[in-house]
Structures are given as C-alpha cells and as structure tokens.
Automatic annotation (TrEMBL):
The keyword Transferase applies. Residues 195-343 form the tRNA/rRNA methyltransferase SpoU type domain. PANTHER family: RRNA METHYLTRANSFERASE 3, RRNA METHYLTRANSFERASE 3, MITOCHONDRIAL. This is tRNA/rRNA methyltransferase (SpoU) family protein. It comes from Rhynchospora pubera. One of its GO terms (molecular function) is RNA binding. The keyword Methyltransferase applies. Gene3D superfamilies: 3.30.1330.30, 3.40.1280.10.
Amino acid sequence: MATVPCRCRFFFPPVSSSSPSGDIVVTSRRWSPVRPLAFSPVVSAYISSPDQREREKESKTHNGKLISSVSNPLVKHCVKLRLSSSYRRSNGSVLIVGCTPILEICTFHRDETEPSSIIDQLIVLDGISIPDELNRICSTVIYVSANVLKKISGMQSIDSTEVIAIMRMPRSFCDLEMNGSEAMFHSLLPSPYRLLVLDGIQDPGNLGTLIRSARAFKWDGVFLLPGCCDPFNEKALRAARGASFQVPIVSGNWSQLNMFASKQRMKILAGHPANNVNRPNRTSFLTGEVVNRLASGALCLVLGSEGNGLSFEALERAELISIPMEGLFESLNVSVAGGIFLFMLQPQNQRD
C-alpha cells in the first residue's frame, strides 16, 4: 500500500498490535509519517465557519435553551430593552432584573390578572433553580451563561441577579404626549386623593426611589412632568424594585396636570428648600398644624430636581412648603425630602 509523505509530524504512543486494515502502525516511540487527518463534513464546517461556532454554543439543557454567546439575537434584544427608551416603547416591553422585584410584581398583579400575561420570557443563570411560583406562571424559560447574564443585566456582579424577566409594559403607565388620552388618564386615577408630581427629575435613582416611596405610603399615582427620565430606565427600575408596575404612572405636561387637578379639585403643593435665599415669603413649613390642615383634602405634591429646583410653572401655580431644618443646610436630597413629604402627607387612614 503506497504511503503519501506528510509534511506534518505527529507523535503516537506505542501500539502492540498491527492494524488489519493495512494502516500504518507505530510500534516504537519514534516520529513517523501518517495520513492527513480526515474530518466529517460537520466538523469541517464548524472549523471553517465562525458563525457556525457561535450557533453551536447554543444547546438544550433543563428542558430549555442554553445561550452562551453574547452575540445571540435574544441577548442583543435584551440589551436594547435595557438601554433604549424608544426601543422599549416600540416593543412594549421592559427588562426586570432580579428575582425579588419580579416576584413582587407578580404577587401584586395576582388578584387582578393572570401574572403570566405580563411575563414574556424568563432568563435564568445556568444551574440556578428558580422559585416554583415563577415556574408556574412562565412557560418560556431560557438558561444563559454567566457572561451572557452580565451582558444582559449590565452588571459586573451577578450574585443577586440570577433571574431576569422580559415583561410587558404595564397597563398602569400612560404617556399623554405619545398615545395616551384624557379618558385613559382618568381611568387610571378615577378619584385620586394623593398624587406625586415629579418636575424635571433626571436622576433615575432618585426617580425610582420616589416611585417606591409613593407606593409604600399608599399614594394613588405618580405624574411625570417634562424633563423627567424614563421610569423604566434600568437604574430607575432597580431603585423602584418593582413599584413601577404597582402604582399608576402618567407622563404629561403642566396644562394636562392643571386640567386634571381642577376637575378633581386637588390642591397643588410644591416642596421648596427651607434655607434657600430665594424662598418666597408665602412658603410655609411642614408642621403638624399644616399637615392636619391638609389632611382632609385631595392634593398633588410637586418635587423638583436638585440641580434646577422647581420649574417656573411650579413656583407660580403651587403653594410652597418646606421641611424645617437646623443649621445652614440649604436642602436635602430630593428622594430623602420626598420620603418625608410622602410620609407626613400620606392618606389620613394610613397615618392613624
């Protein structure tokens, strides 16, 4: 049998028996010419095609799909949901990171609708067991590697983010400038007693914290004036910890707010720094007497950003109120001040 010399040399361990097929057999520790290696068509395609290698990284596990490539289309979709407000709006979907907020949202919606109707997909770290409740309400579970989970979540540490949910935009959210209507606004807040109004809050952490505080102190809803960041921004969602799905949120302008407040006979208050040199004389302090005076009527509380303060419209249209403070501190962080206002002015039955 003729042998074709090969430029490549390979070392084979000793073999004691000869091959019945007539192939060359090495019987001692020495270099020997061998036949070129022959690959199956599948292996050859895998070696020659980078795209094929990426596809081969996906396999089946836990009766679900395991994704280990950050270039997977689903991974790209999730990253865009996390980063782009317009992409979230066009898809009607939101990315929720963490098992705790996901469970909070599902628990809140359990009585009024099927939780499965708000979860499209669950993305789980490979090797992690998800709670039975999530298993029951979502049939589409996709497992991913640690690197993919970091890419999707945008976090370096995934110790507390083993589960991510692609959820539908809550029906309790209404953008009056985009596709909302006055009728939708009134349907979300048919008879409001306490409404938190955020005026140009651009920091997502502060906005999310205020939404969570509003939910904690039983306020009826949140109204976002122009200049506010997206309440479904990744940092805002992280700070809100699921509250963005549990309280009505309406985005609109001053004209729409004034019309709504007038129809609902709501007083408009605005928090103002106590020690600000420009504090108008008509500003009152948040005392027990003032709280009791405001307890019986419906009201809107306007909070402005730390950097720019209240807008001109808020200063002109609202009754200003301040938190009394000692020392020379001009103001508190807006989420801290907001928490105090929300607690002190919460519905009467909550304070009793």
